[in-house]
Amino acid sequence: MEAYHTNLGNHDTSVREAATHDYVRFWDGEARHLHWFEPWSQTLSWNPPFARWFVGGTTNMSYNALDVHQETRSDKPAIYWEGEDGSTRTITYGEMYRMVCRLANALEGLGVKKGDRVTLYMPMVPELIASMLACARIGAVHTVVFSGFSSSSLADRINDSGSGVLITADVGYRRGGSIDLARTAKEALDRTPSVRHTVVLNRAGPAPHGWIPWSDMMEHPDSHRAAAVSSTDPLFILYTSGTTGKPKGVLHGTGGYMTHVHSTFGWAFDIRDGDVYFCTADVGWVTGHSYVAYGPLLCGATQIMYEGVPDYPDASRLWKIIERYGATILYTTPTALRMLIKYGDKIPRSHDLSTLRLLGSVGEPINPEVWRWYHDTIGGGRCPVIDTWWQTETGGMLISALPGIESLPLKPGSGTLPIPGVQMEVVDEEGTPAAPDTKGYLTIRNPWPGVMLTLWGDDQKYRDTYWSRFPGRYYPGDYAKVDGDGYLWLLGRADDILKVSGHRIGTAELESCLVSHEAVAESAVVGVPDSIRGEGIVAFVVLREGIQDANIGQALREMVAGQIGPVARPDAVYPVPALPKTRSGKIMRRLLRSMVTGGSTGDTTTMEDSSVLDGIRDSIGGRSG
Ligand code: PRX
User: How many CA atoms lie within 13 A of 31 on its CB side?
Assistant: First the structure.
């Protein structure tokens, strides 16, 4: 019998008890750990599906992340930054505060006001976090676009959000090379009429003509009075893939999100003053928002920020970083772990990882054997591993063991329990509770502070996407089961969203990109199991009449990478004579998937024309892209 445990010695049952007794009152108490300019008059306004927390209260995220630490921690490192080439910087809480104040003053000088949108397209540098905090400081809404996205993805997000200012960098560094972000940004700017000013962190040379160099921004005064913004005012938009062709703008608010992130960061990571926390997520994704940019700063923690990939120049990179800075907490993804496992135990074992005391996983299901390797080889058998489940939409963790407050047995592969104050249920198609150990749909029965405000500009879509499948409940789109101990096991997406290396990519988005090519009449994209990245992308296309091109598969792979970003590049694109469809015309993705994985195609009686499968079999047997 395995005995894994959150063995950090904390056990405060009062937290869960209070939360179970009255979740609204419980979160009211949690919010009081933060600074408010004006207290709220109503803890929760719940007008389903719209939750508004701490109504009437005013606060500021940047004030809570920086100003509150100035008396006690101004010399404490907020960020140890390391570049892929080994260069390092240390930014203290005092330096971060001054940088953010200068930027906030500069942005105000550019006419940015409360509620205005600012797009940030930057690599993993402290200036990205500073830019987010500067927006928050004046009440502007930031929208960070992952720096691996293409110019058209960037332009679409700028246009959808109506951003008036773009902050970017000239280059990012990755896998030994540099990425020309300025060129991508310039291409995007050709079709973004709303952008009045472009600010550039020019790392490699002078600022491009007409753009404002970073040094100009830093000439502004280094103090700034943080705006008192309403708790319910928006803090940021983060675009994420859904089941339609167009990414959704997830809109998060201020006070609720801040409370959720602050509490969960402390509970999950048992954060203490001497900790050195290391999260490998890019700030361009939600993990980087909640648990790189905001959570650590709200809690006054020191963190490591690394710009680069985990296996460059070799597979010892993460372990070297942990050793160099004495990291105590590591938060990473199953994909990164699976990639590093394949290099064997010798590399991590030859590094001093003894400072680690807690390990976390996020973004995709973690296989039990990977969990055990993480626990035994990286954690030396002494560090609890927490598997944290949540989404862009939830703002922060909703399922996780919480070693900071609870002592709990751990089961490899299970996220354990919902966080205090959140009631979950796994249900069947009809919405009735599923029996223990039976696969069903995860649902959430009550609002939590980090829940999104809405989808940017589309309340109806917010209602339809998350609150209609099971009326009165939030439906995240995940399969799950509950075991006899009430532990939750997450079993992957129940919709057409893929998780490739933990990145979320909608099949509809890929399909609409593929059919935008003049040679393509129809397309269908499926996810197939991948031993490292969790899922890989395989596309099927039906070409227009008369098109014969032996290289079309390769050309289409590159087109998708160019139009969406390299993370979305399909592993293979197969031209096929026709797609398998039901009589009502629905594409049968299940069949396509089993044709790639070699599984049984099962029942095909609902197919309109079963000879289609032979045509596909012939096509994928021969050519691939
Ligand atoms: O399917 C779940 C999976 O990632 C989805 C959310 O993706 P995203 O919005 O990009 O946020 C990722 C970072 C929080 C979920 O619907 N997911 C996330 N964490 C886990 C997970 N699946 C299993 N276990 C997890 N710990």
Answer: 32
